[in-house]
Each structure stands twice: as structure tokens, then as C-alpha cells.
User: Fold this.
Amino acid sequence: MGIAVGQAAPTVQTPVESQFRGQARSGLQYIARNQQLLIGLIMLGALALFVILGHLLYKVDLYKPLSVPAGRPPSAQFPLGTDSQGRDLLAVMISGIPLTLFIGLAAGLLGVAIGTILAFAGAYYGGLLDAFVRGLVDVGLTIPTFLVLIIVAISIHSAMTVPQMALVVAALGWLWPTRTIRAQVLTMRERAYVHVARLSGASNLRIIFLELMPNLLPYLAASLVAAVASAILASLGLEALGLGAVDSPTIGMTIYWVIFYGALLQGMWWWFLPPIIVVIMLFMGLFGLSAGLDEWANPRTRRSL
Assistant:
């Protein structure tokens, strides 16, 4: 029987398209069941949407001092009000959220990358190299991290920039990832598939990148989110002490200026409330994302897709 004139031919999905659609549907169903991961994605997605729409619809250059009248409460002209420096606080939030996330992401990526390299080098090859890595991490974890970060930040505070802030926070951010990833590699290197790969003549680098690393990716993703949250927390602490990039509208520096000008004593609630809300949403989102990824990475708690 032929197809009638004007009648659309039925679309036929290829096996690859059908498999992709099935995996996408299963992934969405898994996210819907994993409420912690869903809440985390919603929180971070709301912040991302706020920043994107803000850059499209608002004058973000009003974050600079003396751009608007100082000390104005929220109004139609200034939805979040202005601070004592003459900055539009909505523009400050729109500009500050990406900068704060950049510090966390850069420091977290550096920490996890360095930790992964040291962990694989020590745990897989063993011997004196593993003893050196283990000793370095054990000694490093006994040092009061925040105190060291304060000393490092003070030494370069006069010309601090946002990238330098990320490097300062990442200075000791590799210690904990090194310990936890090393413990995972120590158990994985004794698995049967690793022994089979060795017997088949595979090189050590091939085993690391093709056998161990793919199985460790879910755990590395969860570790990265936790490292980003820790880096953001450390940056907020340093910036609240005035040891950040003073000219940048990051969330931590906004909190510093709130403290410096005594916004709470002046009753300027519109100045200290927005950064607090952003911090709460940011950490709720990161915690939910980390907990959800941890469930995915942990075989004991993972739910089937």
C-alpha cells in the first residue's frame, strides 16, 4: 500500500537514537528520584538563571563605587537598593556570583587535579613514592589550613586579584583529595580486572587511564563538588577579613564591606540580606549536588537507573 499524497512519512528512529533517548529518559527519572541531587541542581540553576538574565537585562557596570546615589533602600529604580559606596546591590550580586564561583571552581579543579596525580602516583606504584606522598599529606593535614591561607593572603594582599585569590585558596586544597583518592586507588589496584590487564601486557599508564580512571570518575565528580564548596567557604572567610580582591564585587568582599561600614547597626538590611541569601542558596546547591553524586558514586547507596 503506498503513502497517500500529503501524508507525512512515519519517522523511523535509528538504534543509536533510540538508545540515546532511552538513556536520557532514564537519567531524568533518576534525577527525579534522587531528591538531593534535584534540589542541588534547582538551587544552582536558579543562581545561574539569575546571573544570565541579569547580564541581559540589567546594567551590571553599576557595581562600581559612586555609580549611583549611596544608601538608598530598595525601589523600582534600584530593586535591591544601594550601599554606602554608591554601588547598585543588584549589579553587585549579578557580577559577584560568577566571580565567587570562579574562585571555587578554579581552586577546586586545581586541588582535585593535583590530588589525583599524587594519589595515583603513590598508590599505584607504591614503594618510596607512596611513602613520600602519604607522609606529605599526613604532615600537611596537621597544619592549621586557614591560618596558612591568611599568612599567604597577607603577603600578596596589596595587589590581590580574583585569579590570585583562587591560587591562594588552592595552595592547600589538594591535601584532602589526595588522601581520599589514594584510598580508592589502593583498593582498585587489587581488583581482578586490573590483574587481567597486567597479565595481558598492558602498560601502567594504559591501566591507569583505561581501567582505573573510568571507574573512579563518579567519585572524582563528587570530590570535585566538595572541593569547590570548601574553596568557596575558604575564600568567603578570607574576604570577610578583608584579604581578598578589594576592587572586585565578590560575595565575600560584599560581606566585608557590610562589616566595615556597620550595615547591621545602620539598619541597612537590604545590604547584608542579599549576600546571605546567595551564600545559603550556593551551599545548599553544592551540598545537594555533592550528596547526590556521592549516592551515584557509592555502589552501596546507588539506585538502579
